[in-house]
């Protein structure tokens, strides 16, 4: 009986794949029609500084801000994209120039920047990130951390061509 169930499940799975791909015989997973672009978040642009320098690290470090940058539609990773990061930290306020820095995405569209520990501002531990180059539309993010004790935070961008 187990073999019969297994055989039926395989047949149903294969039949679903053929229905998705047509009768080509090629079995591939169904894909979304397109990846929607990220919308700017309310409050994301607060204390933004155009042209913040690209840095290896902001301040003394200890906290990791990371994420990905992909193209809207096909979701392709975007290499060499500039992401600015700033926050209220143990070393400065988010309005201070020393609390701002930028980094570039790698060949897989991944960015990562070390910075001082983020601390609550207005009751919430949060970061600010911006994609602000000319190739794609500007996007500002303001992700909130689940806990002020967290030592990392991720943010992901899906960009629409400008």
Number of DSSP strand runs: 7
**Radius of gyration over alpha carbons?**
21 Å
Helical residue percent band: 10-25%
- Low-confidence runs of at least 5 consecutive residues: 4-32
Order of helices and strands: HEEEEEEE
Mean pLDDT: 85
Q: Provide the structure class.
A: alpha+beta
Largest sheet: 4 strands, antiparallel
Share of β-strand residues: 25-35%
Shape designation:
globular
Biggest sheet, strands in spatial order? 3-2-5-6
How far apart lie the N and C ends?
A: 58 Å
Number of helices: 1
Defining key terms:
162 residues; alpha+beta; four-stranded antiparallel beta sheet; three-stranded mixed beta sheet; 1 helix; 26% strand
SSE map:
Blueprint: H1 2-21, E1 63-71, E2 82-87, E3 100-104, E4 110-115, E5 127-131, E6 139-141, E7 152-159
Parallel strand pairs: 1-7
Antiparallel strand pairs: 1-4, 2-3, 2-5, 5-6
């Amino acid at each position: 009986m187990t073999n019969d169930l297994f055989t039926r499940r395989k047949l149903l799975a294969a039949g679903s794949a053929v229905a998705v791909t047509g009768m080509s015989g090629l079995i591939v997973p169904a894909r979304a029609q397109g990846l929607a672009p990220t919308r700017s978040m309310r409050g994301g642009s607060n204390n933004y500084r155009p042209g913040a320098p690209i840095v290896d690290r902001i301040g003394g470090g200890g906290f990791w801000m990371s994420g990905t940058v992909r193209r809207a539609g096909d979701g392709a990773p975007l290499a060499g994209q500039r992401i600015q990061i700033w926050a209220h930290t143990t070393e400065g306020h988010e309005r201070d120039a020393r609390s701002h820095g930028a980094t570039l995405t790698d060949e897989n569209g991944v960015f990562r920047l070390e910075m001082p520990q983020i601390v609550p501002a207005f009751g919430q531990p949060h970061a600010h990130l911006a994609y602000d180059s000319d190739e794609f539309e500007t996007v500002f993010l303001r992700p909130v951390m689940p806990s002020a004790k967290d030592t990392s935070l991720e943010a992901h961008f899906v960009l629409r061509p400008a």
